[in-house]
Structure formats: structure tokens, C-alpha cells
Amino acid sequence: MDEKALKTMTVQKISDSEMANDSGKDVAIGRNVLETEIEGLRALAKSLDGGFSQAVEVIDKMKNSGRSGRLIIAGIGKSGHVCRKLAATFASTGTPAYFVHPGEASHGDLGMVTENDVVLMLSNSGENAELSDLIHYTRRFAIKLIAMTSNPESTLAKHADIVLLLPKVPEACPNGMAPTTSTTMMMALGDALAVSLLERMGLTADDFKVFHPGGKLGKKLQKVSDIMHGVSDLPLVLESSKMDEAIIMLSEKNLGVVLVVDGQNELKGIITDGDLKRHMSADLMQKSVTDIMSTGPQSIEQDALAVEAMNIMTNTPGRYITSLIVTENKDGKLAGMIRLQDCLQAGIA
Predict the structure, then answer these.
(1) Residues 85 and 193 in one domain
(2) Torsion, CA 253, CA 256, CA 260, CA 266, rounded to 10
(3) Which residue in 272, 269, 252 sits closest to 260, CA to CA?
(4) Residues 244-292: pLDDT tens digits?
(5) Which residue of 52, 152, 207, 264 has the smallest Cβ count within 10 Å?
(6) How many domains does the chain have?
(7) Nearest to 94, CA basis, from 193, 222, 174
(8) Are the CB atoms for 160 and 96 separated by under 8 Å?
(9) Where are the beta strands (DSSP E) in 127-286?
């Protein structure tokens, strides 16, 4: 064997050895992460107390009140991602639930939270500034607030009706900063709530299927026209109107938006809560509605499935939509409006 081939074999052996060492190190790190999170879950299981039972009782009472209440789950960042998963888990196990982004709640979506609901808010620190408006809203309207946090002295914990306290255990991140153990505990504790509520319902395996998509076929096949607000119920103002008229119409109809039309009821634009905030000024009331409105709002045909409307409103990239214009057909003639809240109340979610 020549010298060059020998050197190549030597380099290959060193490379293989390094890979073996890296592989062993990766496995060790992985095991340490899992062990750290397992210890967190053990600590969480031991920490459960009467607060957990109170939370189950409050949510169960809301479900059985006959007032169409829902569990509103809210959180920011990684906690927000956990909230989305938990909303799906609660809904599939028989507890009506919906995720509300606290930031969007501050810009008009608070109207989706009613006095019949219960709010479950997740924040490890309990001090996120984005949560403040939603916390204040629950206190103002006496809406039950359940906090899931590791900080009993936090703003969230101090204002909540019930606190589900997460034990202070290390994050699995080597720097102790990335949400790892804490989010695992949040998800597990949410699952524990959902299953406890499921057990109270005494559902069988067959009953359980009802809360999955295959068992909601009738609701999934509802059309937009079945649940939309017709033209006669819409907050309409002529394009020649001033903003003082639009504000009055916004309050009278209470649908969260105002539609701007011409003399033939042809849609020219829409004024949303976001539009009002962007144009807020001392002379707002004297401005023309055409100066404030947004043109080309998203729409859907009245014969489309309501679930399609729901998907557009919740899955449009980069946008958060709570209302869709409804047209009679592709020619764009105004037929009505459908809101995210209408879809939720109809059981489409």
C-alpha cells in the first residue's frame, strides 16, 4: 500500500472516530433533555392541589350552563403555540374551546370573548405586557380567569380567579432560557384538565367520536348562506358619508365593521377596527368614509361551505381576519357577511 493510500485510511479512521464520539454525545444530550423534562412532569404531578379541581369545576359549570360558553385559551410566544394545541385537545374531548391571540385581542378581538366564557391564560413568567388588556377585560366583565404560570407573585397570578402553579424546575436548555420543560409541563397540565373534564362527561369510545371531524359532518356541511348576516342586517353607509355616520352605524349594528357602498349597494370598501386605529385623529369624525376605508376586502360566495370561510379567516398567511364579505356569485354582488364568531357559535370549529 502506497503512502498516499495509508494517509487516506488514517484520516478516514479519525473521521469515523469523531463521528462516533459526536453520536454518543448527541445521545447523551438527548437523554439529559428527556430526563430533565420527565423530572419536571413528576414535580408537576406532585404539585397538583385544590386549584386543579377548582379549574375543572369552573370549566365544567360553564359547559353545562346552557349559555353557549367556551373555554378561551390565550398565550404569547411558545406558550401561544401550546395554547393552540390545547384548544384542539379540549374541542376534540367535548369542551368547546378556542385560541385567542392576546395581541389581536387588544385590536378588536376582545369582542369575541363573552361573559359566558372562561379564559385560560398561559404564561410562564406571568408578566407579558401583551396579556394586560385581556386580563383587564376579564376583570371588568367578571369573566372567570384561570392562570397557568410558575410565578405566584406575577400580575397574571394576582388577578386570576384560579392559579395553576407550575413548579420551578430547570429548563432543558443548557442556558436555562429556551422554553422546554416549562412548555412540556403546560401541555401536560392542559391535557390533564381536558381528560378530567372528559371523565366527568362519562363518554364511551363511541361518544368520543362525535367530537372529531367525522362525527361533525352535519355542521361541516353547513353553507355560508346558512349562518351569514344578510344585506338587511349589515352596517351599510354610502360612500358620500362622513365618519360620524359610520361610527353611529358601527354602534347600532354591532358587527365590528362598517361596509361602504354606492347607491346600488355595490361594495366599495370596509372600515374595520384596525382602520379606525390607523386613522385616529382629532378630525376623524369629519373625514369621508372613503378616506378611512380599506378597499378589496376578502370575500366568499354564499354557496361555499362555512368551513371554507373559517379556513380563510384563520389560515390566511400574514393576516388575521374576523369577517368575510359574502357575494351571491362570482359577479361580486353583495349578499351578506360572515364572521369568525358566527362560525364558532354554529359549531364549525
Answers:
(1) yes
(2) -80
(3) 269
(4) 999 999 988 889 899 999 988 899 999 988 888 889 999 999 999 999 9
(5) 264
(6) 2
(7) 193
(8) no
(9) 144-149, 162-165, 229-230, 236-238, 258-261, 267-271
Whole-number Å distance between alpha carbons of 70 and 80? 18
Report the b/e string of 171-181 with b at 16+ CB within 10 A.
bbeeeeeebbb
CA angle 68, 70, 73 (to 5 degrees): 170
Residue 193, helix vs strand vs coil: helix
Determine the distance from the C-alpha atom of residue 167 to the mean position of all C-alpha atoms in its chain, rounded to a whole number.
25
Give me the chain's average pLDDT, please: 86
Question: Is this model's pTM higher than 0.85 or not?
Answer: no
226 with 182, same domain: the answer is no
Both 43 and 188 in one domain: the answer is yes
* pLDDT, tens digit (0-9, with 9 covering 90-100), for 162-201: 999 999 999 988 877 789 999 999 999 999 999 999 899 8
Q: Which domain holds residue 256?
A: 219-345
Q: What is the per-residue pLDDT across 267-279, written as a single tens digit (0 to 9) for each?
A: 999 998 888 888 9
Alpha carbons 108 and 275: distance in angstroms, whole number: 11
Helix, strand or coil, per DSSP, at residue 73 = strand
Q: What does DSSP say about strands 229-230 and 162-165: parallel, antiparallel, or unpaired?
A: unpaired
